[in-house]
Structure formats: structure tokens, C-alpha cells
Design goal:
Chain lengths: 514, 408
């Protein structure tokens, strides 16, 4: 028997609700429970919440961090470069809420579902924080019945990673996704995605990079012709994926000893996955006696050929490699897959497993800064009629980029400015606040970025010190004599050279702007 | 059992052979039911709900966003980008830097900061780690950031989304996830200079956004409190009379007076005296006149506020913004929050049908914001006291100037 009886009596207000027992009704409903919970929570709020605990623990939640002004300045530069590139290619942008209905995210992430942040059941809908930007994208397309869109989306996502496993992994981090959705002629949008990755990585100036390309159909076809049983495709695939971290001997050992593959099959795989090249390799494999037996592999190889012909026109083949050992995130992708890696060890990398935008089955090698591929089946999962919307896209490992840029800034002699002030309006003597405020108003009204100290009588030295700390390049100094003469002294902070200007708006502005 | 003043909950759950019966003793035998006991009952009910399969085992394609939230389509994003560029351009012109904070805070960071509005906070589920809540505004995270980093001086803007579990039955069109755009100057400075710059910034932004004509109303908490004192309002009625005065932007004086006298128990004489003052609007001249006013000048507090208003207007004149700024004694917004100057910008052209922006302008919902309000703020020196232990070594109590704002 099940029953709930709740009575509330406070300040003369009485409500009694009784829910009939289970064996007389089909059962208490979720709605009824929600109602009871809401009443109890209201009562709790009236009583004043958390028993009056008032501590001040000055920390952010585990796995999250504030961005200070310096980091924000770096972040802004990076976003401007990336967004500039997306816009150059005609992409529009959307935004989605930070939490979704729990059911929207259910069943989309496999084992990783345990890493999803749920919101507390406070008597309403069950909600979860978004885990990536791809599922919200698929929901958005299905909700709005959109079949064609080229969109970028830069936003934070949330994963309850176990910090014991990986150092430096955040639980709140940026993802930067670009996707082209729609039925189009083969490989043109795919090639444009790679052109975009090439442009972004070149402009960000992170050093040399390579973009590895492969295709799920080629991998599956290769396993088939090498004698891998169908039901072992996935597991062998994740072993192949370890080639970016482990030498072949160890990878082979795992295939044979742990995954039960025959040594012969493993050796055959070993021959293929060591191959790298361009269009030429694709052509060679199409002639390969074994590989050509797989229709699937041939389809993939033809598409790789086509892709490279477009990449040649896009002038990016210098950095793109067809690499048969690339096996990232195969659960997700249905065709071409790619991954961009920085080739210069240089900076100590933060592991970016699963932070590059796809489920963590994919392993991403150290140094990886972008990854993506074609995923034709996802949107159909959301559509009640199962309508397919083919998609190809890429996710930029933007946290990795931030961390590299931050380290670069640290190492460089040049200070990162946190403000963009062009002129400091300063005074050499006392009682000049009024004059300073008049001058700064002229500058602001003309769009010049200017600052003045919030003191009636600041010392000139403090004002100059502020310029140096903030990196303000120019200081306009007002003085009694100069005011009498109708002039303003404009000084270059770094060199101390001075120019005396007639105090009128135009001359000052001209000097500030040059 | 159901007697007046008595309170009890009995919850029994019997499912799959598991039976738990809990009884909470009635109020008249305990000092009262505790929050912990309520937590326990709620937990049991929610466990039951989970056993029932969450949302009754529905596995439909529910293609919707959570209640109170929405996607931004490309058109909306294009507009949003323009608006942000204008606003951020203005902040940068005035030398502000920006920060960002996580979308959730430790629950204890937000506890005790929002009074009755605490019930509107989104909590994260206890999944075995720290207890977390989604940020409710940008001011508490800002205060935490300053204290954590021992910062006493900063001029920062922060544009980000905040989260409130508003009851949609009460207000149409109110979102649960919405942008806030805050600009604050923290630090000990000479009086009214940063305050004046805040108003200059509001003026610049509203002019550039081209929303039509606007006015920025200015007042001061010390002037209001002083006025109430000299009009004979008892100290303990200051706050409640203040919220009545605040209704003047929506109701005519007769109704406001009626509420003061009939509901709040104020003498008609006191109400009339208040009525004379709150109808006053002007500029520096009004401040000067009130400093000479026989009654008002009796309040030291009011005189301090009036002197600051004078000083403020002298700076506003130099900033060339006095055309749109009005010293208005009926402005009484968010007084719990502010300690000195307060201001609110309103659009004067009715034009667009407004979305109620109560409590979405960044301050606790006690403040009422008139229809057409697009910005609001003031000086809040006391907020930092909450973090005094972290800042005590500095000796001085930081003072703040602020402009919280809702972008809808």
C-alpha cells in the first residue's frame, strides 16, 4: 500500500491533500509527486533554506575556473580569428540553452552518460547540462525542420570527468563546432571543412600542423578483407586507434592476445595502417588486390580521391595526409574522418581526450587540436519520422589552443593588455579635474578610448605608473601654463617624447589616431 | 489531526517490497519542522518518482527546449552580436576589462545571498560530489572573484547568462535563462567621479543603440531615508514605505497615498509631506533648493546625499549628459541593495510592447522596475562586507558603483 498525506498549517493557511493508495488507482503519478515536492520546497523556503549556514568558501567548483582579464584578452583574440574564418566561409551561428531536457540527452552518449551533470529534481522537468554541442544541434535542426544549414557554435559544455584519471581536465570547457548539414554533392562541403581547419590553424600561428584524413568505410573494409570477424570491428578499431601513442608491436600484441585476433590478420592490418600518402595512395589501394575486394572500402577510397582533387584546388594539400591508422570516434562517424595535430612538441600538452567534441571512445592523440568527420545518422535519431540530414563538421580543440596561447604569452616579453585604452588624461598640478573631465569627454565623444584617474588631485607619477602597468601608449598632460597657452602636452609613454598640441579636438584626435 | 497551526507530514512508500514509514512530529511538540526533515521527505518522494521511471517512462521524441529557455536562431544571433558590439565598444572606450566565471558555483557560495529569492535558484543534483547551483546573477560571482583574488580595484564588465526558476504562471514572457550585462567599478576613490562615469556610459550606450529618447532618473538612498525621517515616518517603516513610493512609476499618487495610510498605517500628514517631496524633479538646482529646505535640512543623512547629488551634476555637466539626467525624488528602486546613489534609465517612447523586466535587471526582486526600464544601478558599499574576512588586511572598505542591466 502506498499513500502520502501532507498537511500544511502555517500562518492560518491550511491545505490538506491526500493521494489515494496504489491498489485503488493505477498508481500515484509523477505529477502528483511533483505537486507534493513543490509544496514541501515552498515550506522549506519559508523556513529560510539551508538551516542558516553562512560560510564563505572562496573557491570555484571542482573542474571549473574563472577567466581573468588577461585570459579573456587572449580568448577574445582567438575567437575573433576563428569566427572571422567561419564568416569568411558564409557560416551563420546559433545558440542553445545551457541545459536540455534530460530525455533529449538520454541514449546519445553510451557509457559516457555517467559523465552528464543532472540538475536536481526540484519538482519540474528533469534537466541536464549539455554534454556537447552536437546533440543540441541535432535537436535544433529537427525542431525547426531544417534540412540545410552551415553553422558554427562556440559555447561551454559540461562533463563530470573524474579528476583522478586525468590531470588538468576541466569539467566546464569551451567547444567550437562548425557543421554543414544537408544533402549535397559528394565531398565538396567535406573539403571546405578541411580548408577551414587549415586556415584557422595557420592564422592562429601555433606552429606546424598536419591534418590526417581517413574514412570509416575504408577501415571497415580493411578489417573485412584482413579477416577480422564483423563483431570485432569496433574493438579492433579502438586498438588501432592507439597507434598514435603506442608502437605497433604493442598494438599488435593487444589485438592478438587481448582481442583474440589471428596473428595473420593482425600482420595484414599492420601493413595497411602504416600507409600514409595523398591521392596517390588512394589510387594504389583501389588497385590493391585485397582491398579492392571490399565494395565499402572502394567507395571510401573513391571519395578520398575526389576529396584530394578538391583539396588541391583549395591549395591545402601541403598539410593533409591520408593516413590509414586514423581511427577516431568511429561510433559517431559514417564516412570521412579527420584530425589535426600540431607537429611541434614545444608546449607540454594537456590531454584532450574527449574534449574535442566527440564521444570519448575516440582517442585523440596528444597534440591534437581539431577533429571531425561526416556523421549522416545523428539528426535522424531526433526526427519522429527518422528523416535523415547528412552532416559533416569539425570541432576545434579550443581549450588546447587557449592553453598554448597563454603559455606563448607567458614566454614572450610582450605584455598582454587587458584594456584597449589609447590615451590617459593626466594632470601635472592640482585642481585640474574639471579640465581633465572636459578633455576626456571630447575624446570619448569622438570615440577615442580614454581613462582618467578617479582622484581630484593625483600625482603625475601615479598617473604615469598606471599607464605603464596598463600598457596605455599615450598620455595627455594638462598643466596650468599649458592651459593658459591653450595647449596640451601629448607624451608617448614608452619613449617619453612629447608633442605640444593646440588644445582643440582635431589635433589631439589626429595624434591619438596615428 | 488537522488543527490550526499544526503541521505534519506522513509519507509511506511501499514499492517492490520496500516499505518506509516516516512521521514528522507536529509543530506544537517541537519548536518546528526543520529544513533537514523537509529535505528528507523530499528525497523520499523524489526517489519514488525515480522508481516510477522519472517522467512516467515516456520515450517520445520530445523536441523542445526546457521551460523558460529558448534557442537563438541566426537572425537573433546577428542582432545580438550588433548589440553586444555596441555595448562592449562603449565599455572598452572607458577602459573596462572583462572576466568570466563558471556557470555554476558551490551551493554555499550562493547561500544566504538572495533572501526569499533563494527558492528560485537552480540546484544541481547531488551526484556524490560538491553541491552546486547555477548562478543567479553576476554580482555574487563578482564578489567571490574579488575576494578570492584579493582585488580591491577593478573596472570590469561581464556579459553572461544567469538562471532563475521563475514561476511562469506569474509573469508572461519571463525567461529562466537570460543574459545579464553588468558593469562595475570597485575601489576606494574620490566621491562621485566613478558614479558620474557610470551615468556617462549608460548615456552613451542608450544613445548608440538608437532605442529612441530616454531619461536617466537619479536619487540617493540617504535622501530617501532622510526624507522619511523628517516627514515623521517611524524608522521601522522606512523599507515598507519605500516600496510603496516605488509604485509611483505605475500608480497615481492617490492610490500610493491610500496604501501608505490604509495599509501601512502612516499618518495622513506624513503621507502628504512625502507626497510634496516625491513629486519633485530637477537638476542641480533642486538639490540646492532642498539643502535650503527647512525640513529636509534637518537630516544630516539627506544633506550628505544632496551634496553628493550636487557634485554628481557638476561632473555630469562636464560629461555633457545633463540633457537626459533627472534628479527624481520618487525613484526608490532596490533600496535593500544600495547605500548611496541609485539610478534607472527609462525609454520615454512607448513604442515597443515591453516584456516585464521585474527582477531581471540584476537586483533582488524587491526592487520594482517600471515598464520601459532598460538599465538600473547604484552604489552598494555594503555588499563587500560579506567578504570582509578576506579583505580585512586592506583596512578600507571598498566602495562600488554599478550598473546591472537586462538584455532581452
Amino acid at each position: 500500500m502506498f499513500c502520502i498525506r501532507a498537511c500544511s498549517g502555517l500562518v492560518g493557511c491550511r491545505t490538506a491533500t491526500r493521494v489515494r493508495s496504489l491498489h485503488s488507482l493505477p498508481g500515484i503519478t509523477v505529477a502528483q509527486i511533483d505537486e507534493e515536492v513543490a509544496k514541501l520546497l515552498q515550506l522549506k523556503a519559508q523556513l529560510g533554506g539551508d538551516d542558516g549556514k553562512h560560510q564563505f568558501v572562496l573557491k570555484t567548483a571542482k573542474g571549473t575556473r574563472d577567466y581573468n582579464p588577461k585570459q579573456m584578452a587572449i580568448r577574445e583574440k582567438v575567437f575573433n580569428t576563428i569566427i572571422g574564418c567561419f564568416k569568411r566561409h558564409g557560416a551563420e551561428t546559433i545558440d542553445t540553452p545551457v541545459f536540455e531536457l534530460k530525455e533529449t540527452l538520454t541514449g546519445k552518449y553510451g557509457e559516457d552518460s555517467k559523465l552528464i551533470y543532472d540538475l536536481k529534481d526540484q519538482g519540474g522537468e528533469l534537466l541536464s547540462l549539455r554534454y556537447d554541442l552536437t546533440v543540441p544541434f541535432a535537436r535544433y535542426l529537427a525542431m525547426n525542420k531544417i534540412t540545410n544549414i552551415k553553422r558554427y557554435h562556440i559555447a561551454k559544455v559540461y562533463r563530470r570527468d573524474n579528476p583522478a584519471m586525468t590531470r588538468g581536465r576541466y569539467r566546464e570547457f569551451y567547444q567550437c563546432d562548425f557543421d554543414i548539414a544537408g544533402q549535397y554533392d559528394a565531398m565538396i562541403p567535406d573539403a571546405e571543412c578541411l580548408k577551414i581547419v587549415h586556415e584557422i590553424l595557420s592564422e592562429l600561428d601555433l606552429g606546424d600542423f598536419r591534418i590526417k584524413v581517413n574514412d570509416r568505410r575504408i577501415l571497415d573494409g580493411m578489417f573485412a578483407v584482413c579477416g577480422v570477424p564483423d563483431d570485432k570491428f569496433r574493438t579492433i578499431c579502438s586498438t588501432v586507434d592507439k597507434l598514435d601513442k603506442l608502437p605497433w608491436e604493442e598494438v599488435k600484441k593487444e589485438m592478438v592476445n587481448e582481442k583474440g585476433l589471428s596473428e595473420e590478420a593482425a600482420d595484414q592490418i599492420g601493413e595497411y595502417v602504416s600507409m600514409q600518402g595523398g591521392m596517390d595512395l588512394a589510387e594504389r589501394l583501389l588497385q590493391d588486390q585485397k582491398m579492392s575486394q571490399s565494395k565499402q572500402a572502394c567507395a571510401g577510397l573513391s571519395d578520398i580521391k575526389l576529396l584530394f582533387s578538391y583539396l588541391q584546388l583549395f591549395q591545402v594539400t601541403d598539410k593533409v595526409v591520408f593516413d590509414l591508422s586514423l581511427a577516431r570516434g568511429l561510433d559517431y562517424y559514417t564516412g570521412i574522418i579527420y584530425e589535426a595535430v600540431l607537429t611541434q612538441a614545444g608546449v607540454a600538452p594537456v590531454t584532450t581526450d574527449a574534449q574535442n567534441g566527440a564521444p570519448s571512445e575516440e582517442s585523440v592523440s596528444v597534440g591534437s587540436v581539431a577533429g571531425g568527420g561526416r556523421y549522416d545518422g545523428l539528426v535522424g535519431m531526433f526526427d519522429p519520422k527518422g528523416r535523415k540530414v547528412p552532416c559533416v563538421g569539425v570541432s576545434i580543440g579550443i581549450e588546447r589552443v587557449f592553453s598554448i596561447m597563454e603559455q606563448k604569452a607567458e614566454a614572450s616579453a610582450e605584455k598582454v593588455r587587458t584594456t584597449e585604452v589609447q590615451v590617459m588624461v593626466a594632470s601635472a598640478q592640482k585642481n585640474l579635474l574639471e579640465e581633465k573631465l572636459k578633455l576626456i569627454t571630447e575624446l570619448w565623444n569622438a570615440g577615442i578610448k580614454a581613462e582618467v584617474m578617479y582622484k581630484k588631485n593625483p600625482k603625475l607619477l601615479s598617473q604615469l605608473q598606471h599607464c605603464e602597468e596598463s600598457g596605455i601608449p599615450l598620455v595627455a598632460i594638462l598643466g596650468e601654463q599649458e592651459l593658459k597657452d591653450g595647449v596640451v602636452k601629448l607624451r608617448v609613454v614608452a619613449t617619453r617624447e612629447e608633442v605640444q598640441l593646440i588644445h582643440n579636438t582635431h589635433t589631439i584626435l589626429d595624434s591619438c589616431l596615428t | 489531526m488537522n488543527m490550526l497551526g499544526m503541521f505534519c507530514i506522513r509519507a509511506c512508500s511501499g514499492l517492490v517490497g520496500c516499505r518506509t514509514a516516516t512521521r514528522v512530529r507536529s509543530l506544537h511538540s517541537l519548536p518546528g519542522i526543520t529544513v533537514a526533515q523537509i529535505d528528507e521527505e523530499v528525497a523520499k518522494l523524489l526517489q519514488l518518482k525515480a522508481q516510477l521511471g522519472g517522467d512516467d517512462g515516456k520515450h517520445q521524441f520530445v523536441l523542445k527546449t526546457a521551460k523558460g529557455t529558448r534557442d537563438y536562431n541566426p537572425k537573433q544571433m546577428a542582432i545580438r552580436e550588433k548589440v553586444f558590439n555596441t555595448i562592449i565598444g562603449c565599455f572598452k572606450r572607458h577602459g573596462a576589462e572583462t572576466i568570466d566565471t563558471p556557470v555554476f558555483e558551490l551551493k554555499e557560495t550562493l547561500t544566504g545571498k538572495y533572501g526569499e529569492d533563494s527558492k528560485l535558484i537552480y540546484d544541481l543534483k547531488d551526484q556524490g560530489g560538491e553541491l552546486l547551483s547555477l548562478r543567479y546573477d553576476l554580482t555574487v560571482p563578482f564578489a567571490r572573484y574579488l575576494a578570492m583574488n584579493k582585488i580591491t580595484n577593478i573596472k570590469r564588465y561581464h556579459i553572461a547568462k544567469v538562471y532563475r526558476r521563475d514561476n511562469p504562471a506569474m509573469t508572461r514572457g519571463r525567461y529562466r535563462e537570460f543574459y545579464q550585462c553588468d558593469f562595475d567599478i570597485a575601489g576606494q576613490y574620490d566621491a562621485m567621479i566613478p558614479d558620474a562615469e557610470c551615468l556617462k556610459i549608460v548615456h552613451e550606450i542608450l544613445s548608440e543603440l538608437d532605442l529612441g529618447d530616454f531619461r536617466i532618473k537619479v536619487n540617493d538612498r540617504r535622501i530617501l531615508d532622510g526624507m522619511f525621517a523628517v516627514c515623521g515616518v517611524p524608522d521601522d517603516k522606512f523599507r515598507t514605505i519605500c516600496s510603496t513610493v516605488d509604485k509611483l512609476d505605475k500608480l497615481p499618487w492617490e492610490e500610493v497615498k491610500k496604501e501608505m495610510v490604509n495599509e501601512k498605517g502612516l499618518s495622513e500628514e506624513a503621507a502628504d509631506q512625502i507626497g510634496e517631496y516625491v513629486s519633485m524633479q530637477g537638476g542641480m538646482d533642486l538639490a540646492e533648493r532642498l539643502l535650503q529646505d527647512q525640513k529636509m535640512s534637518q537630516s544630516k543623512q539627506a544633506c550628505a546625499g544632496l551634496s553628493d547629488i550636487k557634485l554628481l551634476f557638476s561632473y555630469l555637466q562636464l560629461f555633457q549628459v545633463t540633457d537626459k539626467v533627472v534628479f527624481d525624488l520618487s525613484l526608490a528602486r532596490g533600496l535593500d541593495y544600495y547605500t548611496g546613489i541609485i539610478y534607472e534609465a527609462v525609454l520615454t517612447q512607448a513604442g515597443v510592447a515591453p516584456v516585464t523586466t521585474d527582477a531581471q535587471n540584476g537586483a533582488p526582486s524587491e526592487e520594482s522596475v517600471s515598464v520601459g526600464s532598460v538599465a538600473g544601478g547604484g552604489r552598494y558599499d555594503g555588499k563587500c562586507r560579506v567578504w570582509a574576512s578576506a579583505l580585512a588586511s586592506r583596512g578600507s572598505s571598498p566602495s562600488w558603483s554599478r550598473k546591472p542591466r537586462h538584455i532581452g
